[in-house]
Amino acid sequence: MENFASLLHGFGVALTTYHVMLMMIGVLLGILVGVLPGLGAPNGVSLLLPLTFTMDPVAAIILLTSMYWGALFGGSTTSILFNIPGEPSSVATTFDGYPMARQGQATQALTLAFLSAGFGALVGVILITVLSTWVAKFALRFSSPEYFAVYFLAFASFIGLGAASPFKTIVSMGLGFAFAAVGMDTVSGGLRLTYGFNELLSGISFLIAVIGLFGIGELMLTMEEGLRFDGIRARVKIRDVFKTVATLPRYWVTLLRSSAVGCWMGITPGGPTAASFMSYGLAKRLSRRKEGFGRGEPEGVVAPETADHAAGSSAILPMLALGVPGSATAAVMMGGLMIWGLNPGPMLFVERPDFVWGLIASMYLGNIVAVLMVLATIPLFASILRIPFAIIGPVIVVVCFIGAYTVAGRPFDLWLALAFGGVGYLFKKLDYPIAPLVLAMVLGDKAEDAFRQSMIMSRGSLSIFWSNGLVATLMLIGLALAFGPLLSSTLGRLLKPKTSSAVA
Amino acid sequence: MLKKTSWLLATTIAVTFGGVAQADWKPAKPVEFIVTSSPGGGTDNFARVVQSIIAKHKLMEQPIVVTNKGGGSGAEGFIYTKVAAGDSHKLTFGTNNAYLLPYVAKLAYKPDELTPVAAMALDEFLLWVKADTPYKDAKSYIEAVKAKPDTFKMGGSQSKDTDQTLTSLIQDATGAKFIYVPFQGGGAAGVQLAGGHIDSNTNNPNENAGQWKAGAITPLCVFSPTRLQGGVKVTATMGWSDIPTCKEAGIPIDQFQMPRTVWLPGGVPADAVAFYANVLKKVSETPEWKEYIERTSQTDRFLAGQDLKTFIASDDAKNRKVFEQEGWIAR
């Protein structure tokens, strides 16, 4: 109950005209940087940071977090419209969001994405409000073996999802792991796979790969198919937005399950990317319309978006309470906290309750402001698709390359993006799935670090993954997800002859 | 008339600053601050604090652009600086990694291809354990580690970096043997200690202050020749100045500190080096800088010119000895 009193006080802090105005500015700027792939939330927040030096901490964090929400929503927009995810966590949204847009349902896809994202974020914030003290303690129980188990879970829930052959999935995932290994290795301190290229020292940025694989690869394919976007000439009607809003309750099971997955991954902290992939995997497995997934199934948009935002907002808590940023954006914000003279850590809640609860209250308000603002922009974005391909195609290429350059400001990345574009094209032509590669690139090095740290701790014994209830449970769920489909099909095959012989 | 006034003004400035050559060179375009860590890291905070102070006190006419080039433990930034040889508008922020990184990894730059400008602070290292362990001082902890070699876990940020170097020095000085576990950063190593997943770490004050205040972990000693400043109590019973030096506490290591350094590319005019050294000197005299030093419990120490060169040479030699002994030198 004490938390609610603090929250009400927080609303008192956050609900001033000045702060609400900052939220709107932040969300607008966020949508702007989110829509440009590569610019993204971390860069946007770093650019804005120097302007906040003179502001008071509460106003500054409200501006920055609102920009973060805006950027997350903007990232989903490009995933759906152009198949170019702005953030790692919106990759899963492309799987069904882009097919929906191609079928002329861009408005529906965008509306569903924004609404479910808003729903997920609100669940995440409610969780923070209710459980803040408990959650902070729970996150302390996570060490390297537990992290590895969480990443393993994410990989496992994704295995066997694609329609492609499992061997192609493994090849794609293996390539992803190799790309993730490039650069300096945390555990040994040595350089790997850089071949003397200075540009590869910092590794291959996930964003470059995604811009190439999805954005440029997709454009090459579209060009080959005859320079047109199929069926996106559908008219945009404001009424569609309201109609889609009315369909949302239909997906209540997916919404609740995905929020649960998102919150769990946000506080553990596996992060929004693992959450969105896992939620998509689970939704596909448990849905009654499995075959529709990957071809424009609305549930395939709802699931990753809900989990992404639930994880994104609940991940703010470990940052405040433990001082461990869960994402690049959170790291920039933490840097900001220190410059404003605040020390993230367990004592922040005690020393600066006005700041913490003002921030939490602003998360409620900021997300509501963000959902309203992005819903209002849907007709604008959806009508972009009505522009002829001869005009929009080159614009996308330019946006892709600007995005690739802004990631780190290196000309080398432009060539890399182009190369990934070629790889993406080949993958599509040869029917290799791209998603496993992306998943492996995002979580691969983290999973590797966690595994090797665990091995150092246990002096090489695998039993560390069964050493306590938490990690054992996670590993068991992971193994069940990974081998479940295989087991059930084998069992089915074993049982079938028996039943037929019994009948005979 | 106008000419005369400005001439007078110039003379006054020259006289005020005791004839330092800084009046001869001034940045002609925006200055780029290259940060050799990712956003949120210790070096990032250092550079951004300097940026905010310069902006607030208008110590430079040209605007400042901060870029993070933290790839390869910061090597990305130093290589970028090396390639920019002769460009006096690129200021690079780092630690002693500037001259130590090329030892442990094969990199495309050598320390002498960079021009040292200043060292602005020394970050301290402490030995921390979990608060609810029976070890109340460094000596009893080290004895416990010695009794069971290769069972106690020491956490730190990255591999072959300051934390592992210090761990190696402690092992040499005491005969204790740790399992060293590298994490992604000091923050992660701090949380792992608070959660009881490792037995100790050698974090900087700033990285562990929050957990200490909350009573999750406790410092045993500081690897500094003298005790830390700051009489205010952090917990109910202890403040930074109550922590014994490790030498007092029975670990025979006099000093292990990490300088926060600023560099220019090679081949820049001496006037430019003097200009930035002068600006940074002024930064280090502002109340905001003192506040930063106090908040992060570092040691305030401004070094430039010959003092800096001497410091770097001795720090370099000391670390190199450990690297050679551990076989970390990359060939």
UniProtKB/TrEMBL annotation, chain A:
<feature type="transmembrane region" description="Helical">
    <location>
        <begin position="109"/>
        <end position="135"/>
    </location>
</feature>
<dbReference type="Pfam" id="PF01970">
    <property type="entry name" value="TctA"/>
</dbReference>
<feature type="transmembrane region" description="Helical">
    <location>
        <begin position="200"/>
        <end position="221"/>
    </location>
</feature>
<feature type="transmembrane region" description="Helical">
    <location>
        <begin position="319"/>
        <end position="343"/>
    </location>
</feature>
<feature type="transmembrane region" description="Helical">
    <location>
        <begin position="414"/>
        <end position="443"/>
    </location>
</feature>
<feature type="transmembrane region" description="Helical">
    <location>
        <begin position="259"/>
        <end position="283"/>
    </location>
</feature>
<protein>
    <submittedName>
        <fullName>TctA family transporter</fullName>
    </submittedName>
</protein>
<keyword id="KW-0812">Transmembrane</keyword>
<feature type="transmembrane region" description="Helical">
    <location>
        <begin position="355"/>
        <end position="382"/>
    </location>
</feature>
<feature type="transmembrane region" description="Helical">
    <location>
        <begin position="170"/>
        <end position="188"/>
    </location>
</feature>
<feature type="transmembrane region" description="Helical">
    <location>
        <begin position="47"/>
        <end position="69"/>
    </location>
</feature>
<feature type="transmembrane region" description="Helical">
    <location>
        <begin position="20"/>
        <end position="40"/>
    </location>
</feature>
<keyword id="KW-1133">Transmembrane helix</keyword>
<feature type="transmembrane region" description="Helical">
    <location>
        <begin position="389"/>
        <end position="408"/>
    </location>
</feature>
<feature type="transmembrane region" description="Helical">
    <location>
        <begin position="464"/>
        <end position="487"/>
    </location>
</feature>
<dbReference type="InterPro" id="IPR002823">
    <property type="entry name" value="DUF112_TM"/>
</dbReference>
<feature type="domain" description="DUF112">
    <location>
        <begin position="21"/>
        <end position="439"/>
    </location>
</feature>
<keyword id="KW-0472">Membrane</keyword>
<feature type="transmembrane region" description="Helical">
    <location>
        <begin position="147"/>
        <end position="164"/>
    </location>
</feature>
From TrEMBL, chain B:
<protein>
    <submittedName>
        <fullName>Tripartite-type tricarboxylate transporter receptor subunit TctC</fullName>
    </submittedName>
</protein>
<comment type="similarity">
    <text>Belongs to the UPF0065 (bug) family.</text>
</comment>
<feature type="signal peptide">
    <location>
        <begin position="1"/>
        <end position="23"/>
    </location>
</feature>
<dbReference type="Pfam" id="PF03401">
    <property type="entry name" value="TctC"/>
</dbReference>
<dbReference type="InterPro" id="IPR042100">
    <property type="entry name" value="Bug_dom1"/>
</dbReference>
<dbReference type="InterPro" id="IPR005064">
    <property type="entry name" value="BUG"/>
</dbReference>
<keyword id="KW-0732">Signal</keyword>
<keyword id="KW-0675">Receptor</keyword>
